[in-house]
Design goal:
globular, four-stranded mixed beta sheet, 123 residues, mainly beta, single chain
Length: 123
């Protein structure tokens, strides 16, 4: 007799044996430096990925005036005014896993625009 719950349990067990192939290559590194550029209302690259507990440095090239905000890391990376033409360095520890919106606030655009995603893998 077919029992779907047995199939589900076997699937979960087998999935646990599959290596995590979507982790960043530098997941074992103690620290990581990422480069990104804020252009108009987008971040290039749009996704920044690290692993939990890594020391993170984001080197941000700014091509528009805005208030830069990393949701979920408000204490570590307070929202800050950035000015076109400047380079900004953000340093913090990725202490929480998950997906966190990267947003900007502008005077001439929408009140808040999501420009990218910061992904922290459990590692």
């Amino acid at each position: 007799m077919f029992r779907p719950e047995i199939l589900l349990i076997l699937s979960l067990l087998l999935a646990g044996c599959v290596p995590a192939t979507n982790l960043p290559e530098n997941c074992d590194a103690e620290s990581v430096t990422l480069q990104a550029t804020l252009v108009e209302e987008r971040l290039e690259p749009a996704t920044l990925e690290v692993c939990r507990d890594q020391q993170v440095t984001i080197e941000l090239t700014v091509e528009r005036d805005a208030v830069f905000h990393l949701h979920g890391y408000d204490e570590e990376v307070p929202a800050s005014q950035v000015t076109a033409g400047e380079d900004v360095t953000l340093e913090f520890t990725a202490s929480r896993a998950g997906q966190f919106p990267i947003a900007i606030h502008t005077h001439d655009g929408p009140a808040e625009a999501t420009v990218g995603t910061f992904i922290v893998h459990e590692g």
